[in-house]
Structures are given as C-alpha cells and as structure tokens.
Amino acid sequence: MGTIEVVLGDITAENVDAIVTAANESLLGGGGVDGAIHRAAGPRLAEAGAELAPCEPGKAVATPAFGLAPVKYVIHTVGPVWEGGEHGEDEVLTSCYVKSLLLAEELELESIAFPAIATGIYGFPTDRAAEIAALTIRSLAIIDRIRLVAFDEETHRALSTHLAKPVEVW
Ligand code: AR6
C-alpha cells in the first residue's frame, strides 16, 4: 500500500518516475497542464505522442519524458469533456486514473504525479473530479508514492477533503 500526497504546485517540477498529462486525443500537446508538460519535455514528446495517437478518452499511453529527466515517463491520458455529468463523464474520469496507475505498475514505477484531469479546459467540476480522483486512487494504491498535484487552492482543498474521508464499506 503506497502513500498518497496532495501538493500545491507546478507538476513539471515533480521528481517522480512518471508525470501524467491531461492530454487530448491527438497527443500533440495543447494548453493547460499538457502545454506546460510539452514545453518542459521538448518537441520530441509530441513526436512520440503522434506515433501512439489517437488516444480515446479514458485510455492512457506512456512515452519517454525527454527533457523532463530524471522523470522517466509521461503518461498521457485523455479526460472527458464535461457535458453536464449524464454522459458517462464520471466513468471516463475514473478510467483515466485506473488506466494510468495500471500502466505505471506495468512499467514497474515507484512514483507517479497526477494533475486534476479534466478540470480545466474540459470543464469537469473541481469537487466532483476530486472525489473521483481520491476514491479511485485510494482503492487502487498500487504505486508506492502517488502525488496529486493541485494548481490552485480550491483543487488542493477538495482533494485533501476527499482523501481524508473515512472509507465507506456499505
Ligand atoms: N501543473 C499542475 N496542474 C496544472 C498546471 C501545471 N503546470 N497547469 C494547469 N494545471 P487542463 P483538461 C491544472 O485544462 O481540463 C489541453 O489543451 C489546471 O488548473 O490542463 O483535462 C489538452 O491538450 C486544472 O486544474 O486539462 C486538452 O486539449 C488541471 O491542470 C485539454 O487541455 C487540468 O486542466 C484537456 O483539458
């Protein structure tokens, strides 16, 4: 059972085996956290992404992290575009966390950092996304050190709150 930490900051400064990016299906980069990660990793990240694209929402793929070394991998996952919450958004977001963790396990990684997937440009409400992230990661803590990197206070508070909730068995 690993540790799960919530931190406030820029994910490109994380010293972990893998950084997860909130990508789009093209895996070519974009705005938000994906833009920051592609800028820090350099143009080879988009070239490596292009070879694996398209990536469907809820799926995850890994590439080298290039200029982000000593980070080894960037795990690209595509979140759901928020359409009101009745279009399978929760399931797709859950799948982003599950697939990323399983991929990290397959790569025998010891540490991974996640951004708050889908809560920026894709419009997923912060608190609902934080609850999904916290519940999913708590029930699948298969990587030794899992870091949830919030970029703003509201996200940090929401993640901390949901992680601290007692586990409901029934
Ligand atoms: N470090 C950590 N978190 C960050 C950083 C950073 N440097 N920058 C932003 N965030 P978003 P999405 C937070 O929009 O909603 C891109 O164009 C941000 O505050 O990056 O999944 C992709 O290519 C928010 O809490 O991702 C896709 O087209 C969270 O990261 C699309 O955006 C996610 O916001 C994906 O949209």
Verbal overview:
The chain is an alpha/beta fold and 170 residues long. It has five helices and six strands. Strands 1-6-5-2-4-3 form a six-stranded mixed sheet, with helices on both faces. Strand 5, helix 4 and strand 6 form a beta-alpha-beta unit. The protein starts with a strand and ends in a 6-residue tail after the last helix. The model has no long low-confidence stretch (mean pLDDT 96). It binds ligand AR6. Ligand AR6 binds next to strand 2 and helix 1. The site of ligand AR6 has 25 residues, from strand 2 and helix 1.
Mean pLDDT: 96
Q: What share of the residues lie within helices? A: 25-40%
| SS-based class | alpha/beta
Bound molecules: ligand AR6
Side by side, the strands of the main sheet go: 1-6-5-2-4-3
What series of H and E elements makes up the topology? EEHHEEHEHEH
The unreliable regions are none
Radius of gyration: 15 Å
The shape is globular
Strand percentage lies at 15-25%
Number of strands: 6
Distance from first to last alpha carbon: 22 Å
Instruction: Characterize the main sheet.
Output: 6 strands, mixed
**Number of helical stretches of at least 4 residues:** 5
